[in-house]
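Revision sheet: structure tokens.
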Amino acid sequence: MNSDTDITARQQRYRDIRKVTLVGSVIDFLLGVVKVIIGWLANSQALIADGIHSFSDLFTDFFVLYAAKHAHKAADETHPYGHGRIETLATVALGIVLMVVACGVAYSSILRLNESENLSVPGGLALAVAIASIISKEWIYRYTVAAARRLRSDMLMANAWHSRSDAISSVVVMLGIAGAMYGHPYLDSVAAVAVAVMIAKIGFDLVRSSSLELIDTALDREEVNAISKHIFDVKGVRSMHMLRSRKSAGNAIIDVHIQVDPLLSVSEGHQIGEAVRRRLLDVIDVVSDVTVHIDPEDDESGLPCNDLPNREHIIKALKQCWPHLPVPAIEKVTLHYLSGEIQIELDLPLSILRDTQEAHELVNQLRLACELPYVSDIQVRFKV
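Predicted:
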């Protein structure tokens, strides 16, 4: 995915989140106004409280809009991986709001349960408004959930469940109103406590999942296995290790080491790594960024090469071992750092030889003259 495509996709994702949230905000505002007015006219304290709950949804809606706007900013020098974690933090906050709402619902319901004989009896208009609220908030929930799944947004999912908590509170209000009308006002409080437990569980799950994302928890085992399969499907990949994954605002970031033929050119090894990166980005929707490290061997189990000398030091030593060879040929040797040793590939001009027999003798002399302890093999090629 090139940068222009990534920017366009990010902008479209923000526009979709904004549209969904604004639709919910308008309905929340209208429901809040209607509930408070009808609750006051119909003498229903439960409906008035439910209207205030709808107004509280406006706060979370605007919170989502603010977080979405900043979470979809492009990466910069101080945020090289983008601002997606703002959305994750917003999800944690929304989960906490859900738990607080649940505690408030449970507390007020228990108080009403103890004082149910003092509750006034609302009329049929309040019941009709409660039913309309249930239908409206359930529609918002389903509309938002569909968008959250399509956009892989935990923040939208959290806001969807906040809308459903309002729908459920309207169910409680409806039961309370109906129960009061038929002589059973305690039904309101009993149902509300059960609903509060469910809302609190949803809030806890959102906080937990988003907190795991904040500490870079890996993807699920099934997702990791799918990623591994696609990596091995790329021709040229011999092995794979150190596959690391994490999530940011619903997207996955992958970091992997792949092993290729140690004698490949740098450009061919890079090409294989690019093939792996493009395959993961194209095939797995959740993957948004991939970093591929090319290894000539398994650096987890192989002997380390950290203590071996660098190229400058080796060239200097080879010039001392082979003073009769052309300096340009020595300076262009190819070095392979493998299994804690160095393999050397040396290209010599064919013009320095008189016959084939002399080539064999020269190669043997070069190998005998090179007494460097870290050199495991010397390959010589003669070119025209």
